Every structure is written in C-alpha cells, then in structure tokens.
Amino acid sequence: MNAFWIILTGSLVATCCSLLGCYLILRRMAMVGDAISHAVLPGIVIAFLFTGSRESVPMLIGAGLLGVLTTFLIEFFHRYARVQADAAIGVTFTWLFAIGIILISVFAGQVDLDQDCVLYGEIAYVPLDLWITGGGLSLGPRTVWTLAVVTLLIILFIVLGYKELFLTTFDPAYAAAIGISTTVWYYSLMTAVSFTTVASFESVGAILVVALLVAPPATAYLLTDNFKQMLLLSVLAGILASAAGYYLAVWIDGSIAGAIATVTGMEFMLAFLFSPARGILIKRKQLQPVQH
Amino acid sequence: MNEFFEFFSFADANVRYVTLGSVLLAGSSAVVGCFTLLRKRALVGDAVAHAVLPGVCLAFILSGTKNPFILLLGAFITGWISLLTIDFITSRSRIKEDTAIGLVLSVFFGIGIILLTAIQHSGNAAQSGLDKFLFGKAASLVGEDLIAFSLVAVLLLVATLLFYKELTLLCFDQAYAKTIGYPVRALELLLTTLTVFAVVVGIQAVGVVLMAAMLITPAAAARFWTDRLSLMLVLAALIGAFSGVAGAFVSYTAPAMPTGPWIVLIVSMIATLSFAFAPGKGWVSRLLRQRRNKTLILEENLLKLLYQLGEQKQGTLAPHTFQEILERRAIPQKLARTGLRKLGNQGYIEKTPEGWLLTGQGQRRGERVVRLHRLWELYLTQYLHLASDHVHEDAETIEHIITPELEQKLMEELGFPVLDPHSARIP
C-alpha cells in the first residue's frame, strides 16, 4: 500500500509539473521555474511562523505570494534596471533562498523545517501522515489530498485558459493584438508554478520539482511537434518516471526523489539519442543530400 | 563595538581562518563570475554547483576515504561533465540553453542525492560530513581548507591574469578571436575549467544553492559601475571580498547565524543598490536622465513655438499670449505653464502684460531649434528623396539631438540653404 501512495504522490506532482513545464520551456523560462522553486523558501518559513504548523493553506498562500514576488523581482531587475536576464534570475533566487535559510536559523526553535527537506524532501514519509476523519475512517495520506486538489486546479487552469496560454506562449504579439493580456497570463502561469512547488516541496523537495518541470517536457519536445501531444507525452513521461524511480530507489536503498529525477534524466537521454524524428543516433533520411 | 574590535584584531585563530577563507573564496569566484556573466552564461555556475554532488559521492564510494583531494577530484570531474553535457545538448538538439541547464542541474543533483542517501543508509561510519557539500560550512573552516582555498584562489587569479587578453576577446568578440587564430575551443574549455574550480572549492563554504550567487551577484553589481573589464574584475573581487568579511563578522557576533547565507544576503544587497543607484546605468539615474530629456524637449518646443509665432507676425519680438501658444501646438496646459515658468527663470523669456516675450538669448535658442528642424527636413528630401510631407515627424525628434558639429556639417553638405522643402526660410 505504501508503494501505491508514494507512486500516486509522485504521479500527481509529475502531472502538475510536466504540464506547466511545457509552457516554461517553450517560453525559454525553465530557469525561472528553477528560481521560483528555491525562492518560495522564505514564504514557507514565514507562513510557518504565523501558523506554527505545516498547515497547507497558509503555506500555499505564503509561498504563492513569494513566487509572484520572485517573478516580479526578476522582471523588475531585467526590464527596469536592465540587468541581463540570466543574472537577474541568479541574483533573485539566491537572495531569497539566503533569506529563507537565515529565517530558519533565527527561529530555529520555532520552525520545524530544515534545508535538506526543502531541497530533496522525503516522499517516503508521505504514507505516514494519514488523514483520519472524526469517525476514525482513514482517507489516505494528507499530502495526496492536497496534491490532488492542486493537480485538479492546474488541469482546470490549463483547460480553461488553453487558448490564451497557447497564444501568449507561441505568439505574444498576436495575442496582444487580439486583446489577450500577456502580463495577466504570464503572472497566472507563474502563480501556478509557485503553488505546485509549495504543494510538492514537502514530499519531493525543490530539486525534484525542477527535474519534473524541465525533463519530461524536454523529452516530449524531442518526440513531437504537436503541442497537445507534447502535454500528454510529458505527463506520461513524468508518471512513468515516478513509478520507475520508486522501484529504483527501493532497489539501491536511496532517496526516492533523487531516483525519480535520475529516471527523468534517463528518459531524456533515450529521447535525445533515439527519438524517431530528432534522435542524434537515428539516421535522418530527409536530411540526406539529393543524389543526381 | 567591542565585538567589532575583537573581530578585526583577528586575534582568534578561528576568526582568521573563517575571514580569510571567505574573502579568498568570494573574491576569486567573483573574478571568474565576471567572465561567465559577460558570456551571458551566468546560470551555468548553478548547474555546476549541483552537478558536483554525484562526483563527491562517487569519489567516496570508489575510494572509501574522505581525503579532500580525492573528493575534490570527483567533484571536478562531474562538474566538468555537466558543462560539456549542456553544450552537447544545446548544440545537437533543438533544446534551448535554459532547458538544458535546468535539466542537467536537476538530474545530476538527483543522481547525487540518490548516491548520498544510499551511502548514508549503508551504515558506513566514515560518511558523516559528506553533506557539508550540500549546505556549506563556512563557519567551521579549518587550516587545511584554507590551504586548499588559497591554492585555488591564487590559481584562478594567475590564470585570469595570464589569459586576460584571450578571455576578454572570447567574451566580447568570439568571431574575431577565431579569425585571428586564437584557439577558441581551448579557451572555452579553460574558462569552463576555471568556473568548475571556483564552484568546487566555494561550494564547501556556502553550499550548492548559494554558490551561484558567489559567481553571479558580485559580477552583476560591478557591471553597473564600469564599462572597463579590468575595473569590473577588481570591483567584483572587492565586492565579493567585502561581503566575505561582513558575513564572517555577522556570524561571529551571532554564532547561530550561518556565514554563507549572510555573505549572499550582503552581496545581494550591494547588487540591488548598484542596480538602483549606480551612476549612469542605474535605474534611478536612468529615470533622471529620461526626465531631463523630457524637460529639455518641452523647453525647446516652447521656444520654437514662440519663435515661429514671431515669424508669422513679421515683428519677431512681439509678446504672445498663452492661448496663442496652445493654439499652435496642443501641449497639456499644466506642462506648458511649468515649462514657461522655468524658461522665464532661466532668462530665455519674459512675462509682459500682453503675454510671453522671447529675450535675445531665447530668440537665439529658438532660432537654432527651428533651423535644425528645417535643415533636417531639407536633408531628408534631398539625400533620401523622401516626399516633403513625410519629413516633419522625423525632424521633430532629431531637432533636439543634433550637435553643433553636426549642424555645421549639415549646413556645408546642403550648401548653406535658404529655404526648406516647405519654402519656409531657414534662419
């Protein structure tokens, strides 16, 4: 049963991250996702200080705000202060992460958080924290419920805003011309990324979030040119990695989050080498010179 | 205050180690960071920092010891492989660089974590302390770390000095470097190697996540103060070194405080202040410049209007009412009023009971703007063969920019003309 809950948790995180990741890598913002996943730390700590517990809702709010703040700071540094884009990202997230660690040290007695947990989480503990109703009925792990809600919201967000997200990603000028606000959708997307990060950080940690944001979409990107297929393929790759990663971790007795990240890397490598259309080891007939 | 003197007397050996270590680390990685920043590859340092972990773990598994040099060798090898992987992925597929960096960063780190946890679960007693690579331990630097730090810092600085010219060319004009026969590929590898060195050593002090800041932030801050690379390197090193000392001092006065995050916090604050207030490139100084330009344009437009109104009435030195000015050109009332008042204070115009009157000085300045406007219109019609009804907008902009030298050239080029394309007199 534990294996089922862990794989389910992994799959839910993978679904959210892979879906959002497709948009991030197409907008060339993969590293913004990375930055957000680190920069939400002070938000989590502050929410923790206010509520004194690991309640999901305040943490989601705290970290969601920090995620938007991160995006805003990066934009501000880049657009108004003209810091070059990659440096703006690097400065912002390390700064916020440092503040988070300092907050943890200052309130060490009151905050039951540590850095390893933030970086690589502990998905193995998910089945231990059960949600038990007043009647004594066990409804399964609490994290799974939180993640399920977040996943539903993300799917809803993408289904309802499909056209807008699609257009602002592929052709922002056209989107703006037909009256879709690129800014609004940009910040909505980033808020969604922050929520996902927070909802998953406790169980899987920042690094797995980044791995799932980037690797499955990149794998799918090498396999197809159709955006809907890319979304589906990347979710599939993410879920597959969660299952395979779990058994890999059991086999070598290591961190499950680390193993899932490793498997996503292997999936990418396979696609990179053997993708039917673009694998570097596949002979591409269409590129052969024409013989006269 | 007492603590301040205690700290800066460096009587305590531990204080000496931590401070010196932080300064060496922060200073030398800032220098290398300048080059990666200028090559627009600031975030690769982040990838290397994460990719170091599997190397450390593998080195431990294979050798079974915690000999720092063996661990550093392992770290160096995987750090290096990670950069090559990023290059390989971006050059051989349609994956963009940011995706490749994120991919390599998280997957290498994932492999590192799984190895690290596997080692920890194996019950090998010798493994404790491996995780210092994750989060750093600047506050507990000891003598032998310091030797490693100094060696690497000196090595980095010497390499930068030796290859200064080559690296500069690599950053600014790779194509030219290639044409004049520099081994660009080898230089790239050199810079990669230097970056990996800086990261591998620095990571022990500040940890995986914050290492990126040691490379990027001082360089980004220094970039705002100067356009000269040599000065930028020195400034970045100084900013890094200062934050190193300050971070060590904070954790000395409050021992619960982690040194690494404080170094990063301080360097980030310096950077933010630089982004905002650096003269010339900073945000505030750009805002000021924009405002100055706006005022200049408004004032010149008002003087031009008064001059043109005078032209219409033949008698150039008659006063004109506020109403007349606004009729000729729709300027928001409030703006126009402030502009006129300012011009009055500067002595370009005078307020008379009948309206505003150009002084001699104002007459000359207004005349110049009108002249530039008409000269430019003539230039566009004669040399670019634009229709005469298409040239006004462009002249509106450029009349505020042309320098006296350029004006002279234009006059000569056009043969000291008398009439513009609309048959108005060029004053």
Automatic annotation (TrEMBL), chain A:
Keyword Ribosomal protein in record: no
InterPro entries linked to this entry: ABC_BtuC-like (IPR037294), ABC_TroCD (IPR001626)
Gene Ontology BP terms: response to zinc ion; transmembrane transport
Residue ranges crossing the lipid bilayer per the database entry: 6-26, 35-53, 59-77, 89-109, 144-162, 174-198, 204-223, 230-249, 255-275
Pfam families referenced in this protein's UniProt entry, alphabetically: ABC-3 (PF00950)
Entry membrane topology: Multi-pass membrane protein
Keywords associated with the record: Cell membrane, Membrane, Transmembrane, Transmembrane helix, Transport
Domain of life: Bacteria
Family the entry assigns: Belongs to the ABC-3 integral membrane protein family.
Record protein name field: Iron ABC transporter
Organism annotation: Pontibacter flavimaris
Lineage of the species this protein comes from: Bacteria, Pseudomonadati, Bacteroidota, Cytophagia, Cytophagales
UniProtKB/TrEMBL annotation, chain B:
Gene3D superfamilies linked to this entry: ABC transporter involved in vitamin B12 uptake, BtuC, Winged helix-like DNA-binding domain superfamily/Winged helix DNA-binding domain
Keyword field: Cell membrane, Membrane, Transmembrane, Transmembrane helix, Transport
SUPFAM superfamilies: ABC transporter involved in vitamin B12 uptake, BtuC, Iron-dependent repressor protein, dimerization domain, Winged helix' DNA-binding domain
InterPro entries named in the record: ABC_BtuC-like, ABC_TroCD, Fe_dep_repressor, Fe_dep_repressor_sf, Iron_dep_repressor, WH-like_DNA-bd_sf, WH_DNA-bd_sf
One of the record's GO cellular component terms: ATP-binding cassette (ABC) transporter complex
Molecular function terms from GO: DNA-binding transcription factor activity; protein dimerization activity; transition metal ion binding
Any one Gene Ontology BP term: transmembrane transport
UniProt signal peptide: none
Main subcellular location of this protein, as a coarse class: membrane
Transmembrane segments: 20-38, 43-63, 69-89, 101-119, 146-164, 184-203, 209-226, 233-254, 260-284
Coiled-coil region: none
Localization of this protein: Cell membrane
Protein's membrane topology: Multi-pass membrane protein
Iron dependent repressor metal binding and dimerisation domain segment(s): 359-427
Pfam families xref list: ABC-3 (PF00950), Fe_dep_repr_C (PF02742)
Similarity comment text for this entry: Belongs to the ABC-3 integral membrane protein family.
UniProt-recorded name of the protein: Zinc ABC transporter permease
Source organism of the structure: Pontibacter flavimaris
Lineage: Bacteria, Pseudomonadati, Bacteroidota, Cytophagia, Cytophagales
